[in-house]
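Dear Dr. H.,

I hope your travels went smoothly. While you were away I took the liberty of generating a structure for the chain from your last submission, since the lab meeting agenda had it listed for discussion. I wanted you to have the full record in hand beforehand rather than looking at slides cold. The sequence, exactly as received, is reproduced here:
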Amino acid sequence: MNAMVGGSGPVRQIGGKQFLRVLLGTAAILLVPLVAMQFTGEVDWTGSDFVIAAVLLAGTGMLFELAAAKLRSRKSRVMALGVIGLGFVFVWAELAVGLVGSPLAGS
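The corresponding predicted structure, in token form, is as follows:
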């Protein structure tokens, strides 16, 4: 059953179109440091940097798609997307500079 009782409409299902959109968006974002590495020595990413960034970006994108598909009210979507966005920024900052000093912290 695709609709839930008491809501404002049917709940969308996540499919290949959303998955492809997330993968293409992730690839487009990762092209920025890849191209920058060709022109400057200030950007120095390794293969593991690209893998970690890809997992973080794709995971966040899929969480965005899941929240947008499963949550029906605009208010709950905005709140969920805000929490997911803040989680992404926190993990990104922790990996980059080590906000809380975890073993995964950057230098």
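Two observations you may find useful: Residues 1-6 have pLDDT under 50 and may be disordered. The two ends are 50 Å apart (CA to CA).

With kind regards,
E. W.
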